[in-house]
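Interim report, section 4.2 (structural modelling).
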Amino acid sequence: MAQVATTGTTASLPDKSRPQWPAEFNVFIGLILIALVFEALGWIFQGHSFLLNFQRLSIMVLQVSIVGIIAVGVTQVIITGGIDLSSGSLVGATAMIAMSLAQVSTYERAVFPALTDLPVIVPVGVGLLCGLAAGFVNGALIAYTKIPPFIATLGMMVTARGFAKWYTKGQPVSFPTDDFAAIGAGMNPVLIFIAVAVLFSLILRFTVYGRRTYAIGSNEQAARVSGINVEHHLMLVYGIAGGLAALAGIVLAARGLTAQAGAGVMYELDAIAMAVIGGTSLSGGRGSIIGTTLGMLIFGVIISGFTFLRLDAYYQEMIKGAIIVIAVVQDVYRQRMRGRI
Amino acid sequence: MSADDGRIILQTEALTKHYGGVHALDDANFILRDGEHVAIVGDNGAGKSTFVRQITGVEQPTSGKIFFDGEEVSFKNPIEARDHGIETVFQNLALADDLDVPSNLFLGREETYFNLGPFSILNERSMGQKALSALKTTGVKIPDLKNKIRNMSGGQRQCVAISRAATFASKLIIMDEPTAALGVQETAQVENIIRGLKERGIPLILVSHNLRQVLDLVDRIWVWRRGKIVGAVDRDKTDGNEIVSLITGVKSGVDEEAAFV
Ligand SMILES: Nc1ncnc2c1ncn2[C@@H]1O[C@H](COP(=O)(O)OP(=O)(O)OP(=O)(O)O)[C@@H](O)[C@H]1O
Ligand SMILES: [Mg+2]
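Predicted structure of the assembly:
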């Protein structure tokens, strides 16, 4: 190769193959730095360590893992160049649906008195299918009517929330079977998150689905003329995102032993923020589940750090907002650098 | 006409495309024979790319017929055209910037270990090796195939797109201004790829503004003006002046302006 390097196309670009470390590395550094800041503040203001406390760390991960499940789906949507605002509402709607099919017979005011003590597969299966179906509707609207994803999923967001309220006329649904409740018990939400994250990380990296997801986000026109059925693919991606939102709804309901129409409010924004903080580009084509997981952990550290320092929850929201803005600005800045080439 | 004896590979009859009131392509009767290399020339907006989009299934024509390889076809999408053995290098490169070279070469026709529908596992080894040899046969040199397209020069990108088409084309290859943005060396390289295709006997439609290149490379030149085919001349029986006058619509002399036509 060396002797031909001066002819042909190599000559035109010797310097662009600069060493690149994965974008996730920066996020990881960010996570460490934020954790260390709280560690230092811990010693200064509380007189003990923030990080060296296993219980605190478990609760920290537990708190964010349910939104993390959503974020795994949202990351894939954003990689295609889209957005999904409906996931928080789908959490609410599917939590209600699943819980209404998971009630015990000993509770006399069950939503469906004839459908109690069902095997756990029923509420889980029906809940997941409803999420999947709602996601397919999102995807079909976006792919076939060319409505911008923002608007299509905004419509689903309002509709699904309305459905959740209508379903029991606003009443919470409680008293699940032990089997259903077990889904959310202990560290199970974290384990479910890990399973989902590992699965989709591998799928994105090693399957045709993954490669095409990135291709569509990179250049939709190119994907189309290369023979990819972009419409079908988008439906699949949004369907998976809906299914994962439903899974989060099921876990949330099982953990809380109750489902409320207001469950999951604002989760969609937290999930989007986790993805963007984790390096997923809002303009599509780039992102990873590992990055999103790191973004999720940054969220966790901030929430639990503020609790640890006994600071007001209001500050927490404001800092969260600021970090999201920083992440988006960084993304836009990166895009602009690219555009200049 | 020298090429009259070959089998017809592509023919259009009264092919027409209107975008609302814009008559981008009007009543085009075009013929391409097996093994023949032809060029399509014409001013900006003459309808060259529109013609390419109609015969490759990217768009559906308003009216008219397309015959390919002996049968009437109406490709509903680029996949169908590709399945018939037509490969296209579009004017706006159809590459996914965030993917590497093998992923782009095999975009839409990925190789897998076993079929699990969309969740089939990619055979990256095989695609990597085939990409390497594809680039070798087309003479394209790219230092690192794992590099993302985004980090490559315009010339390298163009060569990737052309290698992709050259590798997979079996019956027809179409290039829409493949050297428009390239430097001298890269242009020479693309022209070499085209000569290689001629040797392999694969028919080519080359859209180009570069008359020197056209006269160098192809057998026959089709001239477009304002959506219409205004002439087809054999390379051996013409020169730059005749082509320019056809392009501008000035039949005699090339120094006059065409504004009054
Ligand atoms: N999608 C579209 N909608 C409306 N008009 C279009 C569309 N695509 C092309 N046109 C118009 O059709 C005409 C022909 O365009 P086309 O792209 O085929 O030109 P061209 O010959 O390829 O030009 P160039 O040399 O600049 O590439 C132009 O007037 C263009 O504005
Ligand atoms: Mg054009």
